[in-house]
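protien #1 (seq + structre)
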Amino acid sequence: MLLIAPDTLRKNQALNDVVREMSFALSVFAKPSTFAELMTGQLRRIVMLTDADVTEHTLQSLKAANGRTPFGVIIAADRASLRTSKQAEVVEKLSTFDNVEWVGKDFNFDRLSSSARRCRRRMLRISRQEVESALVNREFVLRYQPKVERTAGTEWLTREAEALLRWNHPEHGLMGPLEFLPETEAFGLMGKLSEYVLRDASRQLVAWQDTGIHLNSCINLASSQLGDPMLAENYAAIVKQFGLECSRFTFEVVEQDLADPDAPHVQMLRSLRKKGFRICLDDFRVASSSLGTFEKMPFDEIKIHASALRRAQQDRIALTVLAAVTGLAHNLGMSVCAEGVEDRETFEFLKTIECDKMQGFLISEAVIPSIIRRVYSAKDAAPDEEVA
């Protein structure tokens, strides 16, 4: 849960982006009494304060909750200025809490998301035994976000669904991946978790297929897994156990060091493609170190990050660059997908850069498998009619 003052969310696009990307549940406080009420109970909270919220009332509410409920504090204000103001004493007392981050008044997406992740991780103490138990007890569940593809004319069809991992924790409730993947990776259990996801996604494709729904699956693949020399062989064997072709799956990977096309992790991507899997470069933000060697990379698709789309909508130079990247991808035989599409304006904008696919809340949020049928059946519908 993220607690904020009502004006804070409306005025900052970076905050909106972080809320969407990190799947925060929002609660708004307009006065000290409301804030105090929201700071009760055992839910984990991140409190975001601007300079106007750094008050004695806020401090007292945090003190009352300290040790009784888990929380972190992000302060979007200039620390030096506050220390020379009438709020200096409150600032010093806020600094005594264990989980405080300062992002400054003019924060951007990267700075805020990094601080939010640190806050959230400090509130969680996930053990190796819990992760191992969750794998055995099948506490990990998948939600699916449809990806629609442009066909002839103005028709968009649902042909893929991205499998998004959640943990239905017996104590913490439903947790997003950022709340447990870093620990899972540190425990050396990412390989087991990735296989778990691939098996579940394969099982779901078969279940959909049996009811007349023919979809392909997109799965996020951790960069750390690309060092496993048996990865391609093992994944192909898992898929074949379910009677499926490897081509039904796209693995989405985030950019790491792609300057060397002969690096071992790039070679593993090639091995996966040789087995028939598709590879997508996820979270592509255009200002990418991979552009210089784009034509040597083993990608079938690039997924444009929502922030890059927004920049291109607001800046003509950014638009020119994004259109050029899209054209280059098409010339290299790659498809282009836009992620984080939330409004009709962005949907209309995609026509200007000849985007092939899109996903986002305009189409559907990530949903349980049974709801996918409603989106899958929405052929020839306008995007605002396709929402699940």
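ok now protien #2
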Amino acid sequence: MKRSSVIAVLCILLLVTGLVFYFYKSYYAMPPGYEECFDEIAPPRPASLALTPPPAVEIPAMVKAQAMLLPDIPSIKSMPGLREEAARQKAAGSDVLIKAVTAFRSHAFTDLFTADDSMRQEVREIMFLLAGTDQLAEDSRGRFINARELATMERFGGEHYLQLGEFPNPTPPASVHLADAFDKMLDVYFYMLAMSGPGRELYVPSGEGILSGFKVELTRKSLDQFIAESGRLTDEASKRAFWQNSLRMLRTTLSPLNPLVPELDAAIRASLGDQGISDVLTMLEGGDEDEEINVLTVNPGIFAPEKIALLADKAKTFKSPEAQTVYWTNVVRLARQGLAAGWNDVVGTKNLLALDGAIRETAPHLNLKVIQEHLQEPVTTDDKYFTDKKGRRLLVEVMITKEKPGRTVCLKRPN
């Protein structure tokens, strides 16, 4: 057979093979009328929908005492409480969570508001540590969602996410709303952590108590003074009251990483028997102290005009409109979280006008109403949806699966 004939036969075979492959893929992988198909969003359904709890460890009393110095952020469904999880991780050999929370709380008031969302990023990492999702590969739930964010929401909600009750990974449009839901959850955790540390200065107390503004650092000198004073007391009631008042003054500045904490705990136990720092702090949070002393954790109070002036001074350091927008959005976002019971009623018209004036003065393209509307608007922007290689914006209309050649989810654009 001539060489040219061989080449012709091979070309025909290649053409036939290509046509067969094309129709095969068209039938199985791309049904008629569908815009795009994905394999990665349809892995096998989890055998169990129960979330795996973190391994239990024995937690020493000293570790519990250190964890009690952290903010009291409660557990929600499968999402552990901050103190409990920090203590568990510390007892298991990792103090990363304790250090991350302590570092965030060490920031100054104006450090909370940046032009690059760096403070929110710190809280985001704390949430991953708290949920035990920090080691997940970010693309392990498909390329449309950050796996750490999705797994954190699953732990927060107490169950696995399943698209249409079947697929563990989200489709592009669903991932948009999931990402938006995570941002709202991040806002809440940012507020809770901020109000336990640098953000407490954002609000002024609704009442004034002698102890509300009295802070003491735990140093060698102050610890020796506490120990000496407690040694002069003879009855149990006086000792208990003494250590409660001492921790009222210490707790706003007390860090679980302070090397004197074990010695303080030992001194309290020597005075009160089997009760240490964690026990005394529990008493303080149990409602036996006057409300005005603990006002920052039960009532945010009033958005203070002097704080608005301080915020305005920092806003003037940002020159670009983009940086100004991020900064003021973060200010309003944090303030709104603390005033869920009624932004306008609690803050008051005078302070709202002062805040609006500060925004307009330092960022002429912004005002309070524009920022509030931006924070409340639904997620509908085009650039949030998945766009394929041809520039088409895809929405879900129909989803199907095919067993051959693989389990596939297909998306169809509405007519």
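The beta strands are 36-38, 203-204, 302-303, 409-411.
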